[in-house]
Write a structure and sequence with these properties.
Distance between the termini: 63 Å
Order of helices and strands: HHEHHEEHEH
Number of helices: 6
CATH topology: Alpha-Beta Plaits
Shape: globular
CATH architecture: 2-Layer Sandwich
Structural class: alpha+beta
CATH superfamily: Reverse transcriptase/Diguanylate cyclase domain
Amino acid sequence: MADRIRHADELINGLTNNAVRDPLTGLLNRTAFNDALGQEIARTRRYGGSFSLIILDFNNFTRVNRQVGREAGDEIIQWMGRLLTEHTRASDVPYRLGQDVFTILCPWTSGDYAEAVAGRLTVLVAEAKPPITVEGGLSLATGTATCPGDAQEAPALFHAAERALARSKVAAG
């Protein structure tokens, strides 16, 4: 009986993990992001301090997929997941929201820190060697927002980061 219970627990844990992980990158997914964003908002209200949100999106990824194909595009997405995992603090949590859009939640951080991280990742992607050679290279657009300074509700904070992302995309051309 104990073996059956242990096996059932393992199955449940596996299903739970699959429900919150992106299958391509292994990063946490949009569902996990939405939950964590709500928790960070609640923590900030309760204890004060701040946290930052970074949105990252490849510039012209549709062009990349047309140039190298979707399977190769998936390899680039997997590579990006590894970069985010390897080049963020242990307390900063990367997520894949879908397609070529990623986010990072940075607890107990200022907007200046988020801007520095976003800038460092932008340079890293521009200078790194992805697993697939892409004509014209790869570049990231980023947007950041900080709670409570930019917004104090999850949808408004995400929207503030999206507006910053849109400005970044316009600046990139």
